[in-house]
Amino acid sequence: MRIDVSGTVAVARWWWTFILRGLLAVAFGALAFFAPAFGLAVLVGLFAAWMLVDGAAGVFTALRTRGADRSWWLEGIEGLAGIAVGIVALALPLFAAEVLVILVAAWAFVTGVVEIWTAIRMREQIHGEFWLGLAGAASVLFAVILVLYPAAGALSLVWLIGSFALVFGAFLVILGWRLRTIDRLARTDALRDYA
After folding, report:
1. Residue 39 DSSP label
2. Spatial CA neighbour of 29 closest among 152, 150, 153, 170
3. Tens-place pLDDT, residues 36-61
């Protein structure tokens, strides 16, 4: 497998955008955990702001790397999707919270039904299928609770999104620092070539 070093160096020039995106995600994640008193609407607004900034950074990175990176358009699509989600969440914060809760409930219900069905089908092939069935039942129960008590589900969802933001942000910061090192090595190497 051949690595395109010039493409990596071109992307590495924009290392700071990855760190910025990562720090914003970590800040949002920390706020979701440590300031739930702000209320769901404010946290959805902060989520919208994070999506707008992250989306704009993604579009900016895509445009800057389009000559060096053949898959630059994927970053652009991701950025545009983030901007669209941010606009919807800002315009309709309560709707955005309800939609997120409904999507998680639907996912949990479908996952639970599939796990129960799989446990029933596999009962002759594996031992411990009972646990898979229980996991499926727990997933279905979680979906029902989300539908019956959406406010509690929304707060749980904010914590889930906060957890995701912390992990996602940490990975972006690590990537940014790695790209920073590559950028510095490339600049040092370029100086040696022209010295």
Report:
1. -
2. 170
3. 656 566 667 777 887 888 889 888 88
